[in-house]
Amino acid sequence: MAHLQGQAVKQITEICERYKNEPTPLIMILEEVQKTFGYVPFEAQELISELTGYPVSEIYGIVTFYSFFSLTPKGKYVIGVCLGTACYVKGSQLVLDKFSQLLNIKPGETTEDGLFTLDVLRCLGACAIAPAVSVNGKVFPCVKVDDVAKIIKQYKDLEAK
Fold first, then answer.
1. What was the pLDDT predicted at 2?
2. Are 82 and 92 in contact (CB under 8 A)?
3. Separation between Cα atoms, residue 82 and residue 75, nearest integer Å
4. Are 118 and 106 in contact (CB under 8 A)?
5. Is the pLDDT of residue 1 over 60?
């Protein structure tokens, strides 16, 4: 826990306190920590364990089991490429490969400038508009390989403003 700053310790303590009367608070605590910090670092898991009595192994198991939790910081823009059946059949693997090539990162990685994280999603529930890509929750429909550079440029342009 020595790596957590005082403000982070305070915030995590407040989060744990908010959910102390819930019958199963752990997922709610972890979701709020993820939302607050962008990821759930191991030091935060140790503090949550200390504050709630849940073993670190159980907390770590939850964080690594569910794909919406992350152990490392994500980029400002999280690009999720759906590889569910409908999207895959319509070429989403090629779309993912193009994002990877243009950003020079593999799925699960973040660009050096901290701007983009590339994630693989198993299903966006948008099969009718496959292949689908999401950026921070905004869904792009029927994405083709040629659209990838335009999507990246759209978010880089936001940074230039």
1. 45
2. yes
3. 18
4. yes
5. no
